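Hey, can you fold this one?
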Amino acid sequence: MPSPVLCEVAEGIATLTLNRPEKLNAISYALADALMARLDDLEADPEVRAVILTGAGEKAFSAGADIHEFSESVRRGAEAALRDFVRRGQAMTARLEAYEKPIIAAVNGLAFGGGCEITEAVPLAIASDAAVFAKPEIRLGMPPTFGGTQRLPRLSGRKRALELLLTGDGFPASRALEIGLVNAVVPPAELLPAARALAGRILRHSPLAVAAILRAATRGLNATIGEGLQVEAEQFARIAGSRDLGEGLEAWTAHRPPAFTGR
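Sure. Predicted structure:
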């Protein structure tokens, strides 16, 4: 059986591909578990400094959860569905959200349900102008369960999010850009190059600073401003004695490009 998540690494960037194109890259339990394992491996690899996440084929980023598999869990009862489906999906999106290396979703097609929730969770996203998004869980008689009721209102505002959550209607990439779900929309042929270019713009900088910014922004988003400022100060304190900060200050003073090492 082919791996449900493919991985390629080049020039400090790992490209993870959700690999169930015949199922529109639906998120099976095996795919979610494989994605978590890949993320663990890449986080521990010092040569990898950014991750791009995309879908196999031309039709879908991910059409959402594997409904046939989920249905079996529901038939076994609420506890089984919570354990197998909800907690697994929430752990996956929480991992993506709190990852200490930048993750860029390259949304190449359908991003429905769980696919949309992945896009909500990652810190950065670029969409093909052929991409279509939807929050269709209400059509099944249920709310989103991978964090969609929480992250989408924070990204787009309560009323805009509730319109999408309560109607289940699809919306184009241009609307996703308007509401802050993605950072940019490009033609299909430019999607992966645009994601790599964005990653490259981040890789110019200290990986210590990148990780600190990701931690501070993610943790501070759900805190009061006072608590968030404390998080920000804590993140600065973690890198205050680093070689990278010293190098950045010396390079600025000398009017030369810095040579960051991640230490």
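The chain has a mean pLDDT of 97. Let me know if you want another pass with a different chain boundary.
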